[in-house]
Amino acid sequence: MVAEDEGALRRSPHPPDLLRLHEAIAGLFATQGDWRRAYQHLRSALDIARDGSLRDALTSSYNRRYLDERLYGPFTDAPPRAIALIDLDRFKGVNDTYGHLVGDRVLRRVADLLQEELPPDAFCARYGGEEFVLWLPGVDAGHAVRIVDAARRRVARHPWSELQPGLRVTISAGLAHEAAGPGTPTSPERQLRRADSLLYAAKRAGRNKVAYRDRQSTRLMTHSE
């Protein structure tokens, strides 16, 4: 009977909350004395609860809590690695002109665009407000620049006017990359601070740009469409 109910719930066009579903099914199996299957569903419920606690409620990207775990917790990724700090350009104007509901839709869509075409083990996290972080382990400097600038172009080319006539959205990014080499690797926290400084360089250069440091100079990827 429980198995039939479980299958019907999965086929429902409006499935209930998966966390509560697994908890309910675990309870049913427990009342039947099937502790193995009850345990399996409880483990699934715990996995869903943990994943939910690490996701941003608005954009479904990872949240600041998950990012802080990677910044300050045990970190085993080997260099080279890169971190990009991304900010929506003039986002306050979007909220002021079109309203916060449209602003929320813009944030969700930008998060989706940032998460497209990321390499394995990379992720996007909402840093706060209209800022996002791209965490890019295991890529060289040139690849990291291409990844971040491709994200910038996806956002700039997106048909925002379909959401609201006249709407245009762009992003600026600061990219901090640590090259492989001798010595103690730079901490991710320090890399994020570098990315923040480079983000301001991109903003000062006119926005809709990716700023990154190449040897001893700061170079800018410029919008050239």
Automatic annotation (TrEMBL):
Segments forming domain GGDEF: 79-215
Protein EC: 2.7.7.65
Alphabetical list of InterPro entries matching this protein: Diguanylate_Cyclase, GGDEF_dom, Nucleotide_cyclase, Rev_trsase/Diguanyl_cyclase
GO molecular function: diguanylate cyclase activity
Coiled-coil ranges per UniProt: none
Gene3D superfamilies: 3.30.70.270
Superkingdom classification of source: Bacteria
Pfam families: GGDEF
Keyword terms, alphabetized: Nucleotidyltransferase, Transferase
Record's protein name: GGDEF domain-containing protein
